[in-house]
Each structure stands twice: as structure tokens, then as C-alpha cells.
Write a structure and sequence with these properties.
The protein is an alpha/beta fold. The chain is built from 15 helices and 15 strands. The structure holds S-adenosylmethionine (SAM) and iron/sulfur cluster. The site of S-adenosylmethionine has 15 residues, from strand 4 and strand 5.
């Protein structure tokens, strides 16, 4: 099984926290669509004949394309790959694009999962973030999507934002859970380079929230999610039973994926590749047959450290049988030895030969993961 990711590198407006690759000039939309199709054809053997169980349109803002344009990309995938009957086909959408007409068209396409960027229901937060929509518009967009029959909806929210008190965060959580959606991705605000937020932080215009506020907001997120019957299956991801994102899980379960479009990453066990983060250079290279990506061959050790980093993020944890069979006795022994102190501090547990972070351990996940890395002398 494997996945395909399309990066749609356009946004109508720039959010002040976001460093994902995108352009606010939409002029090249049609040209980009053709280039994505061409790249797909160029790389049709990348997944070595494996079936596709997830297609993900991420961005940027995939909802800048019409449902027909999105469907034309899915049809193109079907020309070169076998898409499983139950494949998850997700589209990231901004709430203000989810109009009646758009949703009606999308429901007729093969897209069966929506990921909607809500971020907050409080208008003052949305203004600070430079979002294109109000809290009410975001709420209405989800309701509308449900009316059109979408029954696998994920919502993105951000916490740890300046001015977001614990009370306001609690209101956001209540409102989102009462929407009866199936999945939540909740991220702590990151101050990424070259964003307005980072610029404002450096100038002292905004201030990072205190660590105890961050922690309290994360704790609240976890407890509210549990209360509403969601499984905490990855550090920032929660879902109703059986509705974990197949696309995200392919990253964490080390499945192969092919990433298309500027800045998209691909992985086929031995190699990681990434496309150039420049729309014009990408399109010129695709059209003229030039280079548009770089790659890194993964050493045995890189593969092990990748496995630690990705598996420990999830509720399924690190499978010691895989470590023993695929990486060998010394890696296996190292994992067992390193487990001891974290078992004693109740940060991890071992169940059915899997090392799993406890609720307590999730708060120090980075420390735990880096301790398990195998460093070459
Ligand atoms: C790449 S965006 C695409 C989604 C879509 N364009 C939208 O904004 O609704 C995916 C999600 O990443 C999250 N995100 C982006 N930058 C972030 C940052 N600096 N800190 C925390 N979350 C961030 C936001 O929640 C956003 O919805
Ligand atoms: S959060 Fe979404 S809409 Fe905002 S700039 Fe990033 S990709 Fe674009």
C-alpha cells in the first residue's frame, strides 16, 4: 500500500504564522495543473507497482481548484496506478471556499474526506492570524459540508497563540467537538522562519505564551478529546474509532509515498526526495525536462532513526519485532536498555512487544525519541 500527495502551491491570502510553500499569484493555476499531471506521468514507476490507498491534496490551498480540476488529477492517477476501492481521498479546504456550489461539485467527485482549516472560532484570533474567514463562517462551512453528505471531516486548530486564554481555547474545543466531526489535527503554534509572526516576535510586538499555558492547553485538548470519544492516535491527531487519517498514517508507518508539485516530499524506503520550492522553476523544469528535485539516500542508521521518530509519535508505538527482524540484535538490545529509565519514570510502557508513549510521556516526546536514536560512532 502507498500514498500520493499533491502539493497545491497557491493561497488567496497569506496567514501570518504559515511557512508552507505557496504563492498568492494564482495566474499559473492552469499551467501548474498540467505540470502536476506531467510529473505524475514521469514518476509513474516510483511506487514500484504498489496499490494506492490514499490520495491527499494539501497545500497551500487545494480548494483554489474547482472540483472538476481536482477530479481530473484523480483520473490521471487512475491512468497509471491501481487505486483501492476504499482509498481515502482527502482535500484540504479553506472554510470560505466551501460554498454550496463548491460542495455540491465536490460531492460528485471522488473526494471522500475533507480537512478544513478552522484554526480558531474567535474572530480576534483569526484577524491576528490574517485568516480569510470569521469564526461563524468556519462553523457554517462545516455544517454545510455535512448537509452535502461529507461524513469524514477533519478540522485543523491551533493553540498556544498569543491572546488565546485557556477559557477561549476551551470554547474552541467545545464548539469543534459539538460539530460531530470525525477527526481533529491540533497544533501548537510554531514560530517558523520568514513569517509575520516570527518577525513580530523578534520586534517584541507579540510574545510567546508561557510554557505552563501551552501545557495546560495541550492537557485540556487531550482530556476533552477523550470525553467526546476521540482516540489520541498521534501527538497532534485525534479521531473517531477507525477514522485515523490513512495519509498521515502512511508517514508514521513508513509506507511509501509519492509527492507531486513544488516542495512536495517523496519516500520509498531507501531514499527521500524533495521537489524545489519555487513554482516557476518547478514548472519550467517539468516543461523542458530539467531537474526539479534533490534526494538523499538513507543509510541503515537513518532508516532506524526515522522508524523511531515516526513510530513513537503514534499510539501503535515502536514494534520491537520489526526492530529485531529488520534492524538486528544490536538495535533491539539498545531499545530495551534505553526503555528502562523511561519505564521507571512512567513515560513509556511496553505492550505486546511495542514501546508506546504514555499520556505523561507524550509531553516529553522529543526527549524520549532522541534518546532512542542510534548514533554512529
Ligand atoms: C498547510 S495548512 C493547509 C490548510 C489550508 N490551507 C488552511 O489554511 O485551511 C495545514 C495546517 O497547518 C497548520 N499550520 C500551518 N502553519 C502552522 C504553524 N506555524 N504553527 C502551527 N500550525 C500551523 C494550520 O492549522 C493549517 O490549517
Ligand atoms: S495556513 Fe493555509 S491558507 Fe494560510 S497561508 Fe498556510 S496554506 Fe495558505
Amino acid at each position: 500500500m502507498s500514498g500520493i500527495y499533491f502539493h497545491i502551491p497557491f493561497c488567496k491570502q497569506l496567514c501570518h504564522y504559515c511557512a508552507f510553500h505557496k504563492s498568492i499569484s494564482l495566474q499559473a493555476k492552469e499551467r501548474m495543473l498540467n505540470c502536476l499531471k506531467k510529473e505524475l506521468k514521469n514518476r509513474k514507476t516510483y511506487l514500484k507497482g504498489k496499490n494506492i490507498d490514499s490520495i491527499y491534496f494539501g497545500g497551500g490551498t487545494p480548494s483554489v481548484y474547482s472540483p472538476e480540476e481536482i477530479q481530473s488529477l484523480i483520473d490521471e492517477v487512475a491512468l497509471y496506478f491501481t487505486i483501492n476501492e476504499d482509498a481515502e481521498i482527502s482535500l484540504e479546504a479553506n472554510p470560505d471556499d466551501l460554498t454550496h456550489d463548491y460542495l455540491k461539485g465536490l460531492k460528485e467527485s471522488s473526494v471522500n474526506r475533507l480537512s478544513v482549516g478552522i484554526q480558531s472560532f474567535h474572530d480576534e484570533d483569526l484577524i491576528l492570524m490574517n485568516r480569510r474567514h470569521s469564526g461563524q463562517q468556519a462553523y457554517d462551512a462545516i455544517k454545510r459540508a455535512q448537509e452535502y453528505g461529507f461524513d469524514n471531516i477533519s478540522v485543523d486548530q491551533i493553540y498556544g497563540v498569543p491572546g488565546l486564554s485557556i477559557e477561549k481555547w476551551e470554547e474552541n474545543l467545545k464548539k469543534v467537538f459539538e460539530l460531530n466531526i470525525q477527526h481533529i489535527s491540533s497544533y501548537h503554534l510554531m514560530y517558523d522562519p520568514n513569517t509575520v509572526f516570527t518577525h513580530k516576535l523578534k520586534k517584541g510586538i507579540i510574545k510567546e505564551v508561557d510554557e505552563d499555558v501551552s501545557l495546560a492547553q495541550y492537557e485540556l485538548l487531550i482530556s476533552e478529546a477523550k470525553k467526546y470519544g476521540f482516540t489520541h492516535y498521534e501527538i497532534s491527531n485525534f479521531s473517531k474509532a477507525g477514522l485515523e487519517s490513512k495519509h498521515n498514517s502512511s508517514y508514521w508507518k513508513q509506507k511509501m509515498y509519492l509527492g507531486l508539485g513544488p516542495s512536495a516530499h517523496s519516500y520509498n524506503i531507501n531514499r527521500r526526495e524533495w521537489n524545489i520550492s519555487d513554482n516557476l522553476k518547478y514548472m519550467n523544469a517539468i516543461e523542458k525536462g530539467g531537474e526539479y528535485s534533490e534526494y538523499e539516500e538513507l543509510s541503515f542508521n537513518d532508516r532506524f532513526n526515522d522508524y523511531v521518530l515516526t513510530s513513537l509519535r503514534t499510539m501503535w508505538g515502536l514494534n520491537l519485532n520489526i526492530v529485531k527482524d529488520e534492524f538486528g540484535e544490536s538495535y533491539y538490545k539498545s531499545c530495551l536498555e534505553k526503555s528502562n529509565k523511561f519505564i521507571q519514570s512512567s513515560d513509556i510502557k511496553i505492550e505486546n512487544n511495542h514501546i508506546i508513549l504514555t499520556d505523561k510521556g507524550v509531553f516529553i516526546s522529543n526527549d524520549v525519541m532522541s534518546d532512542f536514536f542510534f548514533i554512529e560512532e
